Amino acid sequence: MVDWLSLAVPLAYLGILIGSLATFSSLYRKRKAQKAFSLEPWFPAHLQRDIYFSLLHIDPSSQNEKKSPAIPESIFKAALLRRAAEDIRRVLTLRSQKQALSTLLQRGSVGDDLWQRFLRAEKEMEEEVKDVVSEANAYVPGWGQTIFQSANEMTNNHIYRQRMNEQQGKLAEERAWWDKKKTSIKESFMKELDEGSETKAAESTPAQSAPAAPASVSDDEAVLVEAENSGNSNVGSPKAQKKKGKGKK
């Protein structure tokens, strides 16, 4: 015969233990959920999503009362495209930050709260992407497969326009810099030309005065030549010839 009284104590102990574990687990999950909810979001408010939802929740009856035209479907599609473009930007940001954040978490450089914020942001973006795909398929069947490709092209076009505007903004500054540089180069070049002309003028002045030195030599030579010529002229005179004849006799 089973002694139920002896088994009642361990069974009561097991019941109390299981109940306390269940209570602790429930409280821990609630506290963890409250903590995760109280954490600061990873990204700021999704403005494009809020605009899209605001357009969806406009009451058509209020538009009829105000006699305003209904919102065309193209406006909803454009708002959904902008929402998808913002989702692409956020997904790429999460992908680029995940590896570095996990490395810092392993080293203990960041706390667990930051990692929980990141995981919550990843989960929210997964749900957001699914919601955008379902909304796109509701407008046009199969559009959910290409909406993010179109949004990516739109984002790249926007980036190219921003870069072009930045370059156009720097054009005036670069032109002023180049004009200043060109003026300085011209001034230095003209200065070098002036210095070269002054150097040539200084070199040409002694060169012109140099031939004056041998002028005395040429004058002396002219005197000697003249003396020799005068001597030769005396030899050929009649008096010289008579003296020469007397000498022969």
Structural overview:
- The chain is mostly helical.
- Among the domains are: 27-145, no CATH class; 149-203.
- The protein has 8 helices and no strands.
- Helix 2 runs antiparallel to helix 4 (73-107), helix 4 packs antiparallel against helix 5 (112-139) and helix 4 (73-107) packs across helix 6.
- It is elongated, with a radius of gyration of 54 Å.
- The N and C termini lie far apart (201 Å).
- Residues 190-201 have a biased composition (Basic and acidic residues).
- This is Translocation protein (Sec66).
Task: Write a brief caption for the model.
This protein is an all-alpha fold.
Tell me the major beta sheet: none
Distance between the termini: 201 Å
Q: Give the SSE order as H and E letters.
A: HHHHHHHH
Give the class from helix and strand content and strand pairing: mainly alpha
Tally of strands? 0
Oligomeric state of the chains in view: single chain
Helix content: over 70%
Q: Strand content of the residues, in percent?
A: under 5%
Overall mean pLDDT: 77
Poorly predicted runs of 5 or more residues: 212-218, 232-249
The rough form would be described as elongated
Counting DSSP H or I runs of 4 or more residues, the number of helices is 8
Radius of gyration: 54 Å
